[in-house]
Amino acid sequence: MFRRRPVVVRRAAPVLGAAIVGGAAYHAGKSVAQGQAQNAAQDDAMASMQSQQDQLAAQQQQMMYQQQQQAMAQQQAMAKQAATPAPAPGTLTDEKLAQLERLGELRQSGVLTDEEFAAQKAKILAS
């Protein structure tokens, strides 16, 4: 009689299967770690950009405040200037008095004649 030979099925070495599973797990872990590192770098870059934007906004606010202060100072100066009345023509001011005194000295020293003195005096008083 024939004896049947037992069928021997060779199985792959258990080490080979473990190596495949281990390699896949390593690759997956490495990919996750790289993704986390990229996310951390992106988060840092975004935080840096946000900080720069905040600084720029603060600088803009400060510049606007300074411009407003300058505009207010200019308005106050203009209002003060407008509130100070100009001397009416024919009014004697310190400057006019000084000019008249100088004319008097020139007439007394003989530099100006009486007619020249009178003409200059009339100009000064009319202004």
Describe the structure.
The protein has 127 residues and is mainly alpha-helical. Helices cover 78% and strands 0% of the residues. The radius of gyration is 50 Å and the shape is rod-shaped.
What series of H and E elements makes up the topology? HHH
The total of helices stands at 3
Mean pLDDT: 82
Query: Which quaternary structure do these chains form?
Result: single chain
Set down the secondary structure blueprint.
Layout: H1 14-83, H2 94-109, H3 114-126
Helix pairs in contact: 2-3
Key terms:
127 residues; mainly alpha; 2 domains
Summarize the structure.
With 127 residues, this protein is mainly alpha-helical.
